[in-house]
Amino acid sequence: MAKILVTGGCGYIGSHTIVDLVEHGYEVISVDNLSRGFVEMNHRVSDLLGKEIVNYQLDLSDRVQARQLFEANSDIDGIIHFAAYKSVPESVDQPLMYYRNNIDSLVNILELAQEFGVKNFVFSSSCSVYGNADELPVTESAPMKEAESPYAHTKQIGEGICARFAKAFPEFRIVVLRYFNPVGAHSSAQIGELNKRPENLVPIVTQTAIGLRDAMTVFGDDYDTKDGSCVRDYIHVSDIAHAHTLSIQQSIKKALPGNCEVYNLGTGTGVTVLELIAAFEKVSGLKLNYTIGGRRAGDVIKVYANNSKAERELGWKPVYDIETMMKTAWAWEQALAQSPTESIP
């Protein structure tokens, strides 16, 4: 049984990936300093799996603390690195905090992986590295445009660090996964996205529907799209989680074409904001209270993935459609309302 370290394991995607890894036979340990993740999520994951998932509460941007983790676990076979700050507006306001946290933690974890001989590494990246792509659907070979935010820039830098590390040390195998727009929740409704003040669209939709918000705003209806609202590639969080399991499997088996491979994780279908709202209204039977506002600075007009490389080389194919994504997100919101957690900010 291979032992996988999941950094940021108390976060949204990290928690779902832990569940998928364990369900596919892996032993998992988590590390999360809980500055953005939630101990509640660790408890929920452990309850869902029927076994305790150990979480080390330490800061990976502190090399001394990070080293303690590896000294206590000398038998790690692979690392999936989620731990990073991810708020675009916050990164604009506090860019140095984002560079310090996101870059230092990556450098520390790669140094320690090298020292302790952990040769399988999966890096959590983002479609934000593309900016406003010239061609759609966007492929992994598309050139990176100037980053729209310090957050996106840290992902571009992080990918560059991974690529150069892999070139210098060819015995290491690195997989870079570029997520499009993760949404939804586990089909059990036991885990999902915990955030009372989310910035992402889907939890804002569900919070509005359940009454935590009086109304919500759609930013812009005059873009060059089918209905004037922005287009995104929404992908279910469980589909994303499974891609990490497949990535670590292929890495351990040495079955990847090269020692640093990049993959898009998206459905390949662009969905407008208004289409997403319509899908939610259909599955919930509710009419959402929203207004149309002006464009929001920094928003990409439209982006969606060409995911053929991930299908071909990882054997990955998303299985959740947009209505199922909305259905699981709504079930999670309703479950939270039944057992609210005051510790969630």
The overall pLDDT average reads 95
- Strands, total number: 13
Approximately how much helix is present in the residues?
A: 40-55%
Pick out the low-confidence regions.
none
CATH architecture of the domain at 3-185 and 233-267: 3-Layer(aba) Sandwich
Q: β content, as a range?
A: 15-25%
Per CATH, the class of the domain at 3-185 and 233-267 reads: Alpha Beta
| Strand-pairing-aware structural class | alpha/beta
Query: What is the CATH topology of the domain at 3-185 and 233-267?
Result: Rossmann fold
How many whole angstroms does the radius of gyration measure? 19 Å
Biggest pleated sheet: 7 strands, parallel
Q: How would you spell out the order of helices and strands?
A: EHEHEHEHHEHEEHEEEHEEHEHH
Main sheet strand line-up? 3-2-1-4-5-6-11
CATH superfamily of the domain at 3-185 and 233-267: NAD(P)-binding Rossmann-like Domain
Distance between the termini: 36 Å
General description of the model:
With 345 residues, the chain is α/β, with parallel strands linked by helices. It has a domain at 3-185 and 233-267: NAD(P)-binding Rossmann-like Domain (Rossmann fold), CATH 3.40.50.720. 41% of the residues lie in helices and 16% in strands. The protein has eleven helices and 13 strands. The chain has helices at residues 12-23, 39-49, 63-72, 88-93, 95-116, 150-168, 201-210, 237-252, 273-284, 308-314, 322-338; strands spanning 3-7, 27-31, 55-56, 78-81, 120-126, 173-179, 181-183, 216-219, 231-232, 234-236, 260-265, 271-272, 290-293. The strands form four sheets. It has a seven-stranded parallel sheet, with helices on both faces. A two-stranded parallel sheet has the order 7-10. The radius of gyration is 19 Å and the shape is globular. The two termini are 36 Å apart. The mean pLDDT is 95.
